[in-house]
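testing teh design pipeline on a random one, pls ignore if ur not involved
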């Protein structure tokens, strides 16, 4: 009886903690959305509660008069290309490092792990020189190589660990059937590591989509600005129309939420999977 009460108390405590954490996570989103439907002055009256009158003009003005769709298209292109390259290259590297164990492979693996601890922003000046030498400066094509370099370390770490947990019998059966390494990768490995691929994609999606540092350094042309960089146009020297800024930020958050909801089941499997050994 006493043990069951303790167990019930632990469940109650865990639910309270989860409810508090949910509030902490959702509260900024609540403030963002409700204030995007207010005027510039009414935001300061009560920024934490719903508006008395809903101002949809913030969204119509941003979509009609601004370059929102141009910025959105640029961000979508850059992030999509970067995520595809990161997941592809990380899965290939993870497959090689997991299957072919050697001293050199171990050194390469720890080299990638070290990349998780060293921020790429410390090399901004050298990266700027490289992009200028390649003729990519002031174009959106300068961003995918940077984002791939940012995302590969964690991608290799996740996928290598996941592939190492796959049963050895799969490889032996495929080799006996005469499958090459390429066929084993494409027909056996890729279908099994979809949760890990989703985890890698979602983990890198947020920093890629919300990055302001490298677009600010590399891009001045309005036609090539990303969405978050385009938002800076709304910041004035003496005053800022926060209602329109929040409207743009709300619209920019929609693709991230949609992708997360679409891939949430695979993401959870990738995070919680210990192994698939049977």
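output:
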């Amino acid at each position: 009886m006493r043990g069951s009460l303790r167990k019930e108390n632990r469940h109650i405590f865990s639910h309270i903690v989860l409810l508090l954490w949910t509030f902490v996570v959702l509260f900024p989103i609540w403030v963002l959305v409700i204030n995007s439907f207010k005027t510039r002055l009414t935001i300061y009256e009560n920024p934490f509660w719903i508006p008395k009158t809903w101002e949809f003009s913030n969204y119509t003005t941003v979509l009609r008069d601004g370059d929102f769709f141009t910025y959105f298209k640029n961000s979508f292109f850059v992030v999509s290309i970067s995520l595809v390259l990161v997941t592809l290259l990380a899965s290939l590297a993870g497959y090689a490092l997991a299957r072919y164990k050697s001293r050199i492979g171990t050194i390469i693996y720890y080299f990638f792990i070290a990349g998780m601890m060293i921020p790429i922003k410390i090399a901004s000046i050298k990266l700027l020189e490289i992009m200028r030498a390649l003729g990519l400066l002031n174009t959106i094509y300068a961003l995918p190589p940077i984002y791939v370099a940012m995302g590969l370390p964690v991608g290799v770490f996740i996928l290598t660990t996941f592939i190492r947990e796959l049963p050895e019998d799969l490889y032996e059966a495929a080799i006996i059937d005469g499958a090459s390494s390429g066929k084993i990768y494409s027909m056996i490995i890729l279908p099994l590591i979809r949760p890990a691929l989703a985890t890698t994609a979602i983990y890198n999606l947020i920093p890629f989509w919300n990055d302001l540092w490298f677009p600010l350094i590399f891009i001045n042309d309005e036609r090539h600005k990303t969405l978050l960089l385009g938002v800076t146009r709304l910041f004035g020297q003496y005053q800022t129309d926060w209602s329109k800024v929040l409207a743009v930020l709300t619209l920019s958050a929609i693709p991230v939420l949609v992708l997360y909801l679409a891939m949430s089941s695979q993401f959870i499997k990738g995070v919680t999977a210990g192994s698939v050994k049977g």
